[in-house]
Amino acid sequence: MLYCMRLATITQEPSIRSPFRQSHFYAALIVENDQTWASATVLDILTDLLTFEPEPGYETVTLGDGQTISLTVALHHEIQLLRSIAAHIARDGNRSESLRARAHEFLKMLDNE
Question: Which of 7, 17, 46, 113 is the most exposed place for a label (fewest CB within 10 A)?
């Protein structure tokens, strides 16, 4: 729970300008607190997003303040913020072997970025 409170603080910091803040928070809550398919699904989605390439013409995102940023860079930044949760799952003996394997796969892909 303490981790989730810290995560909530991080996602509210105005210095972090990301269109993904809210979804990052919910993904973290699911993975942190769920022992079942929801955690596995979130890890699978994050793993898939690491190889995401936007369609031509959609490579950037315009933030509320008018700043334009790379969609790929913003997405990868948010995914990297979930590294500690995946590392926790990978080490957690109370999680299923399948879920721990997904977490290891996700961490390997992050390391190869």
Answer: 113
